[in-house]
Design a protein that fits this description.
By secondary structure, the protein is mostly helical. The two termini are 17 Å apart.
């Protein structure tokens, strides 16, 4: 496979922060639904936790991918 250039790495770096944005959006949605629909609030909480997990997973994976080229 061809190596990833710097522009693609910057795009991947930016996209990982979208997960944090989605986590904030789901937490906001959870806080709005907490008193009216508790099941939907738990679902939003689940997606917020999943988005934070994906942020750290993608961050670790991107770092590992960058380090692979330095060997």
């Amino acid at each position: 496979t061809p190596p990833i250039n710097k522009i693609q790495m910057k795009i991947l770096s930016f996209l990982q922060y979208l997960y944090l944005g989605f986590a904030a959006l789901f937490l906001y949605d959870m806080s709005n639904k907490w008193n009216s629909d508790r099941n939907a609030a738990y679902l939003s909480l689940f997606f917020a936790v999943l988005a934070v997990f994906m942020f750290f997973f993608r961050k670790k994976f991107r770092k590992r991918f960058e380090d692979r080229g330095k060997i």
